[in-house]
Amino acid sequence: MHMVDLDWTLFFSALISSTLFPGGSEALLLYRLHEGEPAVSLVIIASVGNVLGSLITYAMGRLGNKAIHKKWLRMDEKKVEHAESWFGRYGQAALLFAWLPIVGDPLCLVAGLLRSPLLYFIALVSIGKLARYALLAGLFS
C-alpha cells in the first residue's frame, strides 16, 4: 500500500470516533468495503486511526485529573464511574473492550488516570480494535 492509497477519511473518522467525541467509523468501513476497497488495507487504516484516538484519550487521562475532566470535558459521572468499576474489576484485560460504545472511551481515560502501563494499554487496545474491524470486514465483505 502506498501513502497515496491511504484512506485519510477513514483514518480520521476512526481516530475521532475513538476519542471522547461522538462518531462511528464502522459505517464508513462497510461503505468502503462495498465500494470494493481491499479489506486488509481498510482494517489496518481504521485500526491504526482508532488506536491513536484511544491514545489521545489515554494521554488526557494521564496528564489530567478527575476534576479537570469533569469540568472541561463535562463527562457524565456515571460513565466515568462505570469505566472505573470495569477497570477495577477486570484490570488490564478490560482494555480489550475499549472499542465498546459508551464505556470504551471513558475506559481509556480511566486507564490514563490510573496510570496503566503504556505498552499494555497499546497492546490490549490494539488487539480489541483490530479484532472488531477484522470481524466486521469478514462478515460484510
Characterization of the model:
This protein is mainly α and 141 residues long. The chain has one domain (3-140). The chain has helices at 8-17, 26-34, 39-63, 66-73, 77-90, 104-113, 118-140. Helix 2 packs across helix 7 (118-140), helix 3 packs across helix 6 and helix 5 (77-90) packs across helix 6 (104-113). The longest helix is centred in the middle third of the chain and has 25 residues, at 39-63. The mean pLDDT is 85.
Shape: elongated
Number of helical regions: 7
Note the main sheet.
none
Q: Order of SSEs, N→C?
A: HHHHHHH
Q: How much helix is in the residues?
A: over 70%
Overall mean pLDDT: 85
Estimate the strand proportion: under 5%
Which class best fits the helix and strand makeup?
mainly alpha
| Structural domains: how many | 1
Radius of gyration: 15 Å
How many strand segments? 0
Cα(first) to Cα(last) distance is 19 Å
Low-confidence residue ranges: none
Fold blueprint:
Elements: H1 8-17, H2 26-34, H3 39-63, H4 66-73, H5 77-90, H6 104-113, H7 118-140
Helix pairs in contact: 1-3, 2-7, 3-6, 3-7, 5-6
Overview features:
mainly alpha, 7 helices, elongated
A few lines on this structure:
The protein is mainly alpha-helical and 141 residues long. It has helices at 8-17, 26-34, 39-63, 66-73, 77-90, 104-113, 118-140. It has one domain (3-140).
